[in-house]
Amino acid sequence: MDHVTLNNGVTMPILGFGVYQVGPEETHAAVAAALDAGYRLLDTAAAYGNEEAVGAAIAASGVPREELFVTTTLWVQDAGEEHTLRAFDASLTKLGLDHVDLYLIHQPFGDYYSEWRAMEKIHAQGRARAIGVSNFSAARLLDLALNNEVVPAVNQIETNPFHQRTEYHELLRSEGVQIESWGPFAEGRNGMFANPHLTEIGAAHGKSVAQVVLRWLLQRGVVAIPKTVSPERMAQNLDVFDFVLSDADMARIATLDEGGSQFFDHDDPEMVRRLSTHRLG
Ligand SMILES: NC(=O)c1ccc[n+]([C@@H]2O[C@H](COP(=O)([O-])OP(=O)(O)OC[C@H]3O[C@@H](n4cnc5c(N)ncnc54)[C@H](OP(=O)(O)O)[C@@H]3O)[C@@H](O)[C@H]2O)c1
């Protein structure tokens, strides 16, 4: 498995496994199968309600902890230093771990300056080997990076062939922030899996659309965390290290960019209101 090196020297697998929208009952089997298939990077979040199941699958797998790279994420309601420290402890307890490899702020809303100060402490204690953010726009990311001690190691943002964010990626790279793609397949929206360009490129390499998309991300140095509950697709999504997309393939994929989210815009006032007030049960 290829790795990237984060801005604090920690290495992270470039390809992992995400468990958004996988119910707690299904999660144990999915994570067990993913570990079995060879995934070592796992991405969960307090908001997904499945940290316990992820932890149980890790414990049952027998995979040595040091081989794993476990990420979890803080929800907005846990803003404030004290709340953040408590939320982090709750996540660790649910995961059954004494540290995570990456702890992220899930959304760029609320009192994230306080959250970041608490996360800097957690990081200094070695309880999160790296800390980062998710869904932060350029302005918010730069503001946080410029006015705090620790520069976020990662920004986990929607990135896929329909929403490529090339300029923003360049900025993040120049600031030393690793880009991690969520929604690499846009959850199949906009006909991703039947897209004729991606299908043709895949056929030429003997690969599926999903494999082309993941390979495209990897060749751009972007960490990807595709989700699937199918063991066959887990294996397929990992099998992307034996081919290379040509410059012509990459240029063709560049033409698919639609310049906007396939889901929603984090700057949309309605979404700011909704996400800022959403509380976990
Ligand atoms: N920070 C954030 O705000 C945020 C937001 C969204 C997601 N994420 C993270 O990013 C991860 C991935 O994003 P996502 O789950 O939204 O979407 P995604 O990975 O783009 O798409 C998942 C969908 O693609 C299907 N799929 C997976 N592999 C396939 C293949 N080889 N062929 C055909 N279909 C395939 C899955 O179906 P099956 O399961 O039926 O196979 C599922 O419906 C999440 O799990 C989560 O960890 C973070």
From TrEMBL:
Annotated InterPro entries: AKR, Aldo/ket_reductase_CS, NAD(P)_OxRdtase_dom_sf, NADP_OxRdtase_dom
Catalytic residues in the record? 48 (proton donor)
Supply the Pfam families for this chain: Aldo_ket_red (PF00248)
| Superkingdom as given in the UniProt entry | Bacteria
At which positions is substrate bound? 106
Q: Which GO terms describe its molecular function?
A: oxidoreductase activity, acting on the CH-OH group of donors, NAD or NADP as acceptor
Q: Which UniProt keywords apply?
A: NADP, Oxidoreductase
Q: Does the keyword field hold NADP? A: yes
Domain NADP-dependent oxidoreductase: from-to ranges: 16-257
The entry assigns this protein to a family as follows: Belongs to the aldo/keto reductase family.
Q: What is the name of this protein?
A: 2,5-diketo-D-gluconic acid reductase
